[in-house]
Amino acid sequence: MKQGNRHDLPAEPDYILISKALEVVSGKWRLYLILQLGEETRRYSQLAEMLPSISEKVLAGELKALVVLGVIDRKVYAEIPPRVEYTLTSKGRLALPILRLLQEIGRIFN
Amino acid sequence: MKQGNRHDLPAEPDYILISKALEVVSGKWRLYLILQLGEETRRYSQLAEMLPSISEKVLAGELKALVVLGVIDRKVYAEIPPRVEYTLTSKGRLALPILRLLQEIGRIFN
DNA sequence: CCGTATCCGAAATGATACTG
DNA sequence: CAGTATCATTTCGGATACGG
């Protein structure tokens, strides 16, 4: 009979976790958006300038998705004209170093 | 006037690198495929079993894309019946630890 | 055994005009 | 300023049948 099955599974990849990770980075702009934001706080218009060729619909949609995922926070100021600021959440800051490492992958295969 | 502009750019994310990195991981199955393969050598049919719900067209397409990217090697044996084996390239093995880290991102946002 | 060819529907992306 | 609404276009994933 089997005894002591520590290490029985050779760290089999978990599709659920991978899908969730891909939600965070996937899309043409999502990862780039997170990396551009970094530890800073940025207004909507600043982000729009940083990603020159993204359409408004897509930018707004990606930001909304990242808020829902818990990657970024959205703070609205009741001013005129309106001001909306985006910042990484604590989870987002936790993930940031790993996401920065992903750029190394790009370097490897370039 | 400005002097000594080392570090003028605060490590601005490079869209080219990021795109390349996303090519490696993106798609519903690509990252999962790499992680399942790991350091092993696997036949086409073995990979097909590991990803039960992937269609043949997509599996063949993803494998071909990963070969072109330089992530995996494809080795054909002139036997009957034919045998085709896939293995990570040296670049692929270099990238593997980072790709495994990506699963942690999934854990963070679960 | 290891794919390719074809077709289809769904999803992602984008251009543009408009609004609180 | 910070988005939403609408429509057009492109890309993706999947089912299935067939080929070397």
From TrEMBL, chains A, B:
What are the alphabetically sorted keywords of the record? DNA-binding, Transcription, Transcription regulation
Q: Could you tell me which InterPro entries the record lists for this protein?
A: HTH_HxlR, WH-like_DNA-bd_sf, WH_DNA-bd_sf
Q: Name one Pfam family in it.
A: HxlR
Ranges where the HTH hxlR-type domain occurs: 12-110
Q: Which PROSITE patterns match?
A: HTH_HXLR (PS51118)
Answer yes or no on keyword Transcription regulation. Answer: yes
**Protein name (database record):** HTH hxlR-type domain-containing protein
| Native source organism of the sequence | Nibrella saemangeumensis
Q: What are the leading ranks of the lineage?
A: Bacteria, Pseudomonadati, Bacteroidota, Cytophagia, Cytophagales
